[in-house]
Specification:
With about 425 residues, the protein is an alpha+beta fold. The chain has helices at about 1-25, 295-310, 330-345, 360-365, 400-415; strands at about 30-40, 40-50, 60-65, 65-75, 80-85, 90-95, 100-110, 120-125, 145-150, 165-170, 175-180, 185, 190-195, 200-205, 210-220, 220-225, 235-240, 255, 265, 270-275, 285-290, 315-325, 350-355, 365-370, 375-380, 385-390. Mean pLDDT is about 95; it is low at about 1-20.
């Protein structure tokens, strides 16, 4: 009885101490914030909101147009915080200044990663992106609509011209939202302003910093650059309501002589899993070539994970083949377990190796012309590959996403309806 009493008193003391320490932490100001990343010589703004719950760690929400991305904040000292950027292996390390602002760096959490940390500052109580209120200049035109984006450069690997991209803009007064699509995926949502005949867009959703700067030639022509680094991608844009990407189902194939895939990879616990296992025989199998570091892969998971849960009883299986930042199963176990828990992934996740080079060609020699993560391979009940889809266009792409979902559901319904072999 005495031991239990001492335990009870000790527990109460620990809780009180924890509550006291939490109260002593310098708080982040609730509400809207404006931050600025310093990428080389370029200052790239972004916006977020902070919500402090009673007795709980604050939540930081990055805002880009209609998109919201929540990140957990924890104090690592009285006036210093760490913001973990969800499943991406990056975090903010920042100090809360005397005036309530913060300053710090975003850096990789991967041991040995040599990428340069990106510094930033952020001020509470500000919600504009590029143009301060009261300093707006009337736009010369409205950019709303679809644009064909021609890249003024050749591929560094093939020497051939890079494929066209498609931009979708929505402008209201000086405010501009947009997204840029390519054969490999999309930029995620961007937000910015139009000032006279110039426009700027930026985005931050956890994986990195996006930036676009352009000039309006007339109401149907723009020029500009994508990227905040020393060598941005130059482009010319033409307004076109029929702008479209190449058919994503006609970019990657199986090599001549192949109609099936065969592979064996370990799951996060080291257990070897093969496509030829009994579990997959007679099933429609969705194979995802992906990585936890890949923003478009995360968006694709947010579509596939709930779809799989709704349809797995119909004779459907899915396998994620993850190509990660390190050739280390323990490292992959950490990154993939975070993914699995965050999005309630109920299908198998296998570690296929370290991303980079010709790793896909090495691990999956039947694949021809692999172009992008994610790539989705659909296998029918007879074990033969039926479709291969390159890239993924997220919800922010509007009609592009809706068209993808419609075709996906129609195609999968037909494959599921096929009789067992």
């Amino acid at each position: 009885m005495k031991i239990k009493s001492l335990f009870f008193v000790g527990t109460i003391s620990a809780v009180l101490l924890s509550t006291t320490l939490l109260a002593q932490n310098k708080p982040l100001t609730n509400g809207k914030w404006r931050g600025v990343f310093q990428v080389g010589q370029r200052a790239v703004p972004f916006n977020f909101e902070v919500a402090n719950g009673a007795g709980q760690a604050p939540v930081l929400t990055a805002t880009n147009g209609d998109r919201r991305d929540d990140f957990n904040v924890k104090h690592i000292s009285r006036d210093s915080i760490q913001v973990t950027l969800n499943t991406f292996e990056y975090a903010w390390f920042a100090k809360i200044q005397g005036d309530g602002s913060i300053s710090g760096v975003q850096k990789s959490l991967i041991a040995g990663n040599k990428s340069t940390p990106v510094s930033f500052t952020a001020q509470p109580g500000q919600s504009y992106r590029f143009t301060e209120p009261g300093k707006e200049v009337a736009p010369t035109t409205n950019l709303s609509g679809k644009w064909v984006i021609k890249i003024k450069a050749n591929s560094p690997t093939t020497g051939k011209p890079l494929p066209d991209r498609v931009a979708v803009f929505e402008q209201k007064g000086n405010k501009l939202n947009g997204i840029i699509l390519s054969v490999s995926g999309d930029s995620r949502e961007l937000e910015g302003n139009v000032q006279g005949n110039e426009f700027e867009l930026s985005g931050f959703t956890g994986s990195g910093v996006a930036y676009v700067k352009g000039k309006i030639t007339d109401d149907k022509t723009i020029t500009g650059a994508i990227g905040a680094g020393a060598e941005p991608i130059l482009f010319e844009g033409t307004k076109d309501d029929k702008a479209a990407l190449p058919d994503a189902y006609a970019l990657t194939f199986l090599k001549p002589g192949y109609d099936k895939l065969d592979f064996t990879f370990p799951d996060v616990n080291g257990k070897l899993v093969s496509l030829s296992d009994e579990k997959y025989k007679g099933k429609v199998v969705i194979i995802e070539l992906m990585g936890s570091w890949c923003p478009n892969c995360i968006d694709q998971i947010q579509f596939l994970a709930p779809w799989y849960k709704e349809n797995k009883a119909k004779g459907v299986e899915a396998i994620a083949l993850a190509f990660e930042a390190k050739d280390d199963l323990q490292f992959a176990k950490g990154t993939l377990t975070k993914l699995k828990n965050r999005f309630d992934i109920q299908y198998d996740m296998l570690f296929a190796g370290k991303v980079g080079g010709d790793i896909v060609a090495e691990k999956l020699p039947a694949i021809d012309k692999f172009m992008a993560y994610p790539t989705t391979i659909i296998v029918g009940r007879d074990g033969k590959v039926k479709e291969i889809h390159t890239g993924f266009s997220g919800k922010g792409t509007g009609q592009f996403y809706q068209d993808y979902v419609k075709k996906w559901n129609n195609d999968l319904a037909k494959l599921i309806a096929e009789p067992l072999p």
